[in-house]
Amino acid sequence: MSYSVGQVSAFAGVTVRTLHHYDKAGLLSPSDRSHAGYRLYSEADLVRLQQILFYRELGFPLDEIAVIFKDPQVNPLERLRARQRQLSEEIARLQRLAEVAERAIEVQKTGVSLTPQERFEVFGEITFDLSYATEAELKWAHSEGQREAMARAAAHTKEDWRQLMGEAAAWRAELLAAFDEGELSNGKRAMDLAEEHRLHISRWFTSCPPDMHRRIAEDFVADPRAFALVIPPSQQRPGLAAYTCKAVHANAARHAGGRTDSEEDR
User: Which residues have CB under 8 Å from 103's CB, separation 6+?
Assistant: First the structure.
């Protein structure tokens, strides 16, 4: 029995244009033609179409499907196993994205309730990067400190934010001055500034022991978005993130009674 292109399109759920494309690509050419020249598909053609649609549903590109059909040396089972691995990886990636989206919703819900004008007035050049915040929330999802920081941030009033950002601005000015004046990152001035930053976090967000402070400072070097929350890009200098991180590490060593030997570089 033969079927017209319109009939095949209807019961296979593909467009006539798609069937024509498969024909031109050499994937599925109808076995016969009517007296008027119209395509006619046989039962065997329909079986082949079903195979094509199966591979397409799994995400195989048309050129790879053509290779599977044409090359007797190609092992379809190995191709399917490889595709299964790819799909598993994609599922894991999408699951992570779903978790990030969920965290983003939570971050938005617990965000600072300020008008755009108030936000600019309070935060100035310090910008809130949602992508970084959600990744951080996901990374520290099981951390009691992260939960406390989010809860306390949500509870801060506009005046609280004004005060803490004022403290941060004053600290930032001192850090930039120390860096510009060539103070060693493990010198007393830099370490005192690192300690001031640690206490600032503890005072306004969550308890920040030296080990936690070191991890925070390491993010300054690893992720520019993290450092931009401390020093806006317009005020940053080359090497400043690393300098700040070294000062934090030196201060943590000082708390632990460790040595902070002099450095040749900053």
Answer: 134, 137, 138, 141
How many angstroms separate the CA atoms of 133 and 212, rounded? 17
End-to-end CA distance of the chain: 83
3-4 and 32-33 beta bridge pairing: unpaired
207 backbone φψ class: left, alpha, beta (φ>0; ψ -120 to 50): beta
Per residue in 132-181, pLDDT (tens digit) is: 555 565 566 566 777 777 778 778 887 888 888 889 999 999 999 999 99
Residues in CB range of 184: below 8 A, 6 or more apart: 190, 262, 263, 266
Paired tokens of 131: 């992508």
pTM: 0.52
- Give strand ranges (E) for the chain: 3-4, 32-33, 39-41
Distance CA 62, CA 22 (A): 9
